[in-house]
Amino acid sequence: MSKYDIFTDGSNCNGRVGYGAVIYYGDQIQREFSSMLNDEATVFLAEAQGIKNAIMETLDLQGEINIYTDSRTILQPLNVPWSQCIIIHEIKKWIKNKANYRLYWDC
């Protein structure tokens, strides 16, 4: 079975908030993407947007898809049945019934 590893990150640097992700197949980079968010966005939102976009970028892939984040604050609401955050609901919707997606905390 194919295995993809995705590393995501969100950050705030000098007042600018953004996210990025790298998708690996084995040790080869398959895709990279990043984007800036508006200046009022939080790092939480950037981390979540990185995960959401990683999922959207890989919906066409077959095989095991492992997403690694350094943000426990994102993983916690993804593992409870209820959250007030819209993007958390969107992430859950995308991976619902997709057994090949796994999210990991990678500190």
UniProtKB/TrEMBL annotation:
Ranges for domain RNase H type-1: 1-107
Classification via InterPro entries: RNaseH-like_sf, RNaseH_domain, RNaseH_sf
GO terms of molecular function: nucleic acid binding; RNA-DNA hybrid ribonuclease activity
Protein name as catalogued: RNase H type-1 domain-containing protein
Organism of origin: Araneus ventricosus (Orbweaver spider)
Taxonomy of the source species: Eukaryota, Metazoa, Ecdysozoa, Arthropoda, Chelicerata
